[in-house]
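Reopening this ticket.

The earlier resolution said the output was attached, but the attachment link was broken on my side. Pasting everything inline this time so it's all in one place.
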Amino acid sequence: MPDLKVETIDSSCCGMAGAFGYGRDTIDASMAMGELALLPAVRAADPDTLIVADGTSCRHQIHDGTGRAAVHVARVLARSIAVA
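Inline output:
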């Protein structure tokens, strides 16, 4: 995509892992994992920055931990076609 600047967040797992992050006994571990790199980086991103995450669980974790909405890469590609 022309003029697209991509910055990758160096993180391992978002911490959600399916329904793991919603369990009463696992939510703290889930959020702690997200706080290692992913969630702070999303919070630090400019409000106009598009946050992209392919995993459904990752998008939920990003929203739950930051209030930001993340989109699947296919939606980014669809937007580029619609604009072109």
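Reporter confirms the inline version is readable. The chain is about 45% helix and 5% strand. The longest strand covers residues 51-52.
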